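User: Can you fold this complex?
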Amino acid sequence: MNKPLEGLLVLEFCQFLAGPSAGLKLADMGARVIKIERPIKGDACRQLAIKNLFVDENSLLFHTINRNKESYAADLKDPADLKRVKELIAKVDVMTHNFRPGVMEKIGLDFQSVKTINPRIIYGVVTGYGNKGPWAAKPGQDLLVQSVSGLTYLSGMADEGPVPFGLSVADILCGNHLTQGILAALIKRAKTGKGVLVEASLLESTLDMQFEVLTTYFNDGGKLPRRSAVKGQGHSYLSAPYGIYQTADAYLALAMGNLQIISTLIGCDLSGVYTDSRSSFEKRDEIMLLIAERLKMKTNAQWLSILEASDIWCAPVLNYQEATALPAFKQLQIQQPLDLGDGVINTTRSPLQLDGEKLYSSKAAPEIGSGNDIINQEFNLV
Amino acid sequence: MLPLEGYLVIDFSQFLSGPSASLRLADMGARVIKIERPETGDICRTLYTSDLVMNGESSVFHAINRNKESFQADLKNEADAKLIRNLLSHADVVIHNFRPGVMERLGFDYQSVKAIKEDIIYGEISGYGPEGVYKDRPGQDLLLQSLTGLTWLTGNADDGPIAMGLSIVDMLAGAHLAQGLLACMYRKAISGQGGSVQVSMMESAYDFQFETITTFMNDGGHNPVRSAASNANAYLGAPYGIYKTANGYLALAMGSIPFLSKLLDCQSLRNFSDGAEAFEKRDEIKALLAAHLQTQTTQKWLSVLEPADIWCADVLDWNQLMEHDGFKVLDMVQSVSMSDGFSYKTTRCPVRIDGELLFSSKGSPRLGEDNERIIREFGLVPTVQEHTLDL
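Assistant: Here's the predicted assembly.
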């Protein structure tokens, strides 16, 4: 297979997660991605560990996000380095950065300046909150963006206060959106021959993520989301039984389904609360409590055999140990090893299959500046 | 000019995953025609949230399917199927999210469509991949969250599994499909070659968790442990989390504990250090921090922390967000109109191209409202000179 982005060259000036996750997606689809990093320290993510895990000098987190890339060390404040970077920019297809507004203008690598070096450049920018307004200078950090976006009032229970999503969801969505924008821009360039500016922000991405529920809010008179008071609720806007329930030995997820059929199957008397289909939302908490009481009586395996036989949408709730032991996990071959030379890191592969093939790459994340010599030579940078 | 102007997308998908991908393509300039079965159409039309009915249909459907056309066709009816095959000969992209095997039976799988349009770009989303023991199971968001370990990342240590309160796996699968399609559209623009893109919700759910599952894979297979309180990421140390204040809440991201202790005048934190200790003793640190932060208002803490460049924020609900200039300046809300004049507010595309916001005033389509126009425009009259299909 010829990967769709083969032959494209991307310079990544981004750090942390949002921008670099876009670079990873482009790399897995065939582009060559070169990280431009400041000497010695490099991408700040190299020192940002989760669970304090490091591989050699770099955090495991950095390895996860920056596999399948090269590194070119350059001090953008040093005129000789900056000159080489500009020569490199003249030869690439895409560049991305996530500096705060104004930084690239000072260095002279903003879109307008770069266009004079390379009129065909696709220029991708990630910000926290867009480039104007009172939040433009605020740190574009995931938890903070979740916090101002209203997202924290969608998970957990009614009386809990804000509950953030337990992953860097704003960063990840924004990286996906930036990737989409860059690809669309490449398509546009194929027609016009001209460079394109693509911008995404963590906040806009986090609002886009809420587009369904925000649309509901805009059109129902501005009612705030009402989480269920029952433990395990799955979605503030969906009716019973949608949620996670404790069973005799574990937890069971029940998605949307016909309450009359489900209550009959599990032997739960809802006659006191369920009168018509509207009850499933209006009496959500009462119904969920009754179902919860009943589901405690048997094990997951017992309930699954009853519910699955009737095509009810349900599943066991698994932790990582159980989830990665599922045959489906193994069959999809989600795990791939990265070659460190003297060892191996296991990580996930690209979620895409293109032309019927999974996209693997065993290339581990680069050391800072490990590509300088080759890149200087290849592009004749002096 | 929008980047995808001139591209025709034929979208057979329902619910959220596939349709969210075609919405993105539509906002970037492509023309999207939904193929819907007669009478009921996309099931999402009647999948209500909060029981809100807008102009006869669910608010969710209106959010996901604006800026698209609707063509109703019964794919099991040969006359209808012929119309669709005709239409496909004009298409650039096809999307579906039926369970594996359905499109093969209907004669609209990749090979069949490729026989109609050699350079088609064919995208599909499944729950668990096209093969294997799970292939016939429902690919539903909460079930995927539950089956991939995701529910053990949100909430606090003793909460049991907590779902993320949005259909996040659907949306990511849609985002990944859109990327694969766009990459293939780029390749086609350069080389003329078509291609296929397959995404499963399970692969997308793990891609979403790539940081944490990689840690799990390399750390001896320990399940994540959330902090006892104020958890925001099971893998990060103190202070990362949201805390109650005297009048609201405060989000605190990364910050040095000794520095915070001094800034906040929190004596009880004086003896803790950063790095390993901030992770290992995070429950203790977070409890002390929580007790201290309740003594003053959010505004008071922000006035101390922000000038010192500590990463922190107020925690807003939507009413507070809508009132804030930081939100208003984004111009994120747009009003769209349906063919019968009904208009509603929704969000716009989150990506900006050449400094412009991508608005579109077209609302969602009534079921089958574009049949006649599309039949006329593409001359879709079933004739004897049909393509012969290798079914």
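Residues 384-391 of chain B have pLDDT under 50 and may be disordered. Chain B touches chain A through 148 residues (CB under 8 Å).
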